[in-house]
Amino acid sequence: xxxxxxxxxxxxxxxxxxxxxxxxxxxxxxxxxxxxxxxxxxxxxxxxxxxxxxxxxxxxxxxxxxxxxxxxxxxxxxxxxxxxxxxxxxxxxxxxxxxxxxxxxxxxxxxxxxxxxxxxxxxxxxxxxxxxxxxxxxxxxxxxxxxxxxxxxxxxxxxxxxxxxxxxxxxxxxxxxxxxxxxxxxxxxxxxxxxxxxxxxxxxxxxxxxxxxxxxxxxxxxxxxxxxxxxxxxxxxxxxxxxxxxxxxxxxxxxxxxxxxxxxxxxxxxxxxxxxxxxxxxxxxxxxxxxxxxxxxxxxxxxxxxxxxxxxxxxxxxxxxxxxxxxxxxxxxxxxxxxxxxxxxxxxxxxxxxxxxxxxxxxxxx
Length: 366
Fold this sequence. Notes:
Elements: E1 2-10, E2 13-21, E3 25-29, H1 36-44, E4 51-56, E5 59-63, E6 68-69, E7 77-80, H2 92-100, H3 112-119, H4 134-147, E8 152-156, H5 164-180, E9 185-189, H6 192-198, E10 201-206, E11 209-215, H7 216-220, E12 234-244, E13 249-254, E14 257-262, E15 271-277, E16 281-284, E17 295-306, E18 311-318, E19 321-328, H8 329-335, E20 342-347, E21 357-359
Parallel strand pairs: 3-9, 3-10, 7-8, 8-9
Antiparallel strand pairs: 1-2, 1-4, 4-5, 5-6, 10-11, 12-13, 12-15, 13-14, 15-21, 16-20, 17-18, 17-20, 18-19
Helix pairs in contact: 2-4, 3-4, 4-5
Keywords: ATP-binding, Cell inner membrane, Cell membrane, Membrane, Molybdenum, Nucleotide-binding, Translocase, Transport
GO cellular component, one term: membrane
GO molecular function: ABC-type transporter activity; ATP binding; ATP hydrolysis activity; molybdate ion transmembrane transporter activity
């Protein structure tokens, strides 16, 4: 468990935050200038805050009250930057084992063979970084950080420099890190889709303050915490793979509700995480008939948010989990949408993008 409490003033900007990061991936989420990188630099020891305390488990890294400040090289942190920052004159194998040189004696370290298998970098071991793609470099950088036996891994927007194809390549490896490695990960991002795939916990930031923190599904259902506002709103639900049909459709089940998607790679019985963008959801007061859309999710309206413009955001409680719909104010008035009204959310199967479908931690068996 990472525990952070910081106060720091830099020019006109003031940071005042406190949070705990459990095992898994804790995402610092917010627009540019919200304080994400300041927090990461303080945890890494690259910045000394005006006041604060940082601890990982029983190990205190910083306590300004007592004057304790471990230097960066003694904090045992792994750092994954936007670029891999590999040593160009070393092979992939040598880059990986360079990280292991910093693992303290007597401290349990990750098994190198397991790390290489988990990150899929076995075929790359004899290559030099100049012959790797951006996604491959990032996987090697993650492996190097893991083999240093870190207390904590810091990942500062590690996908920001990658194109969409490379992001899609590396996201499953971060999911495996989240689910299979005991080291907590502090991850910086401002991408709602990326956060929905990866986050165990979200710490939402704005102007140096925490606006909300908690599980990904709860935080992302509140558009007020999103860096891009209502335009990026979407709900996160978990669903179990039921079967793959011959026509290329995968059937899922979430809270007893069937959901159909273009075929996903996960096997029946596995649990996946879906992000359903609010703009892909239609609403109907009655159960629709004769539609091409395969997904109809019944629910009750929790809240209707309207602003100065023509749009509105409707939050629904459903057996599958919270669902958001972005509609017009005219639709709200015409349909009589209000808190407590029964409604049906309609989602096209192809309206859920492949990058919004990912691995979830296994649920306890029923």
